[in-house]
Amino acid sequence: MTTMKNKLKNCFCCTFNEDQDQKISPQKNRDYPWNMYTLKELVHATNSFHNDNKIGEGGFGSVYWGRTSKGAELAVKRLKSINAKAEMEFAVEVEILGRVRHKNLLGLRGFYAGGDERLIIYDYMPNHSLLTHLHGQLAADCLLDWPRRMNIAIGSAEGLAYLHHEVTPHIIHRDIKASNVLLDSDFEAKVADFGFAKLIPDGVTHMTTKVKGTLGYLAPEYAMWGKVSESCDVYSFGILLLEILSAKKPLEKLPGGIKRDIIQWATPFVQKDTYEHIVDPRLKGMFDLVQLKVVVKIALACTDSNPENRPSMIEVVEWLKSGVGSRRKEMHIVKDHVDDETEDDEDFGDDDDDDTDYYETFDLKNHSGRVPRMPSRTR
Ligand SMILES: Nc1ncnc2c1ncn2[C@@H]1O[C@H](COP(=O)(O)OP(=O)(O)OP(=O)(O)O)[C@@H](O)[C@H]1O
Ligand SMILES: [Mg+2]
Hints:
2 domains; Transferase(Phosphotransferase), domain 1
């Protein structure tokens, strides 16, 4: 990681600034489309980081909404403590965000590093995060209808595939979760938070590292042995897919204190071919059964306990696009409530065709070891 260290050093040399009012400039030799902000401007935009402007709080600090004097809306992440660890996270985030540009990744607009302040400025996402829609304040409004959920699944997969396969060196996100998928004004997904990201030098297939990330989303080999590779993100993405469909949390505490993960919860419905029970009841039956089956099967392939059996994010994007995308035009809405067992056969009468359709569309039969199938996991 010598190159990385040098890059970080360069990054700091050009941008760390002790003078609060001096402008922060992007690195001279590189073409970063960053804006220039002064601390004064950011303090003014966020009403002195007023509590009323606070959007939320994460492990590394708080995020504030702000509006510049020119009227632009911003989200400002203020790191809460400046120790070596936070400094590193800040440097990694700035370095990584500076080099990635994709329609499904949250763009960095600028940053400030001076005195005790470390601020990262992002585009403000008016529709907040998936978390707020699935489990938080906005969940009751149910703004995430089925087509939006499918679009978010494809968009976030595309953002992740870009990180894994198009950026050099490749980037493993390591903290894919609902609060890190933000939604713009059109409900397009923007994957955020690269502070945990890990750059992978060329030719390295996996690395052993201290476990970071969020419980419930961690791949078993990563949680147990710290083995990190792109397939750890694929696992987390599979959990996220199930969460998008069901609005269930990745881990839930059952009476008696036993914890159950979302795959353990969903698996019996897959085995009994009662996929409709997986769907968020707030959708009141307004979903497409064929798309549902496709996405659940992809989620199960992504969360295979053996990382070698998991698909790549490129494959996931292809499968999602051909399985979900191809049905957008012909999408039918299942109107009756899914809990009504007696009417299930009528509502989902084309079940047999669905599976054929699925395998024909995806051509997964020849995809050795990676065909989404009934999970035979040992958990
Ligand atoms: N650009 C943004 N626009 C709108 N909301 C944002 C933006 N960035 C972050 N948020 C929201 O602010 C909250 C805090 O984000 P933050 O990334 O600090 O923590 P987190 O994702 O909840 O947890 P972690 O620290 O583990 O990443 C989250 O709800 C997040 O969705
Ligand atoms: Mg976050």
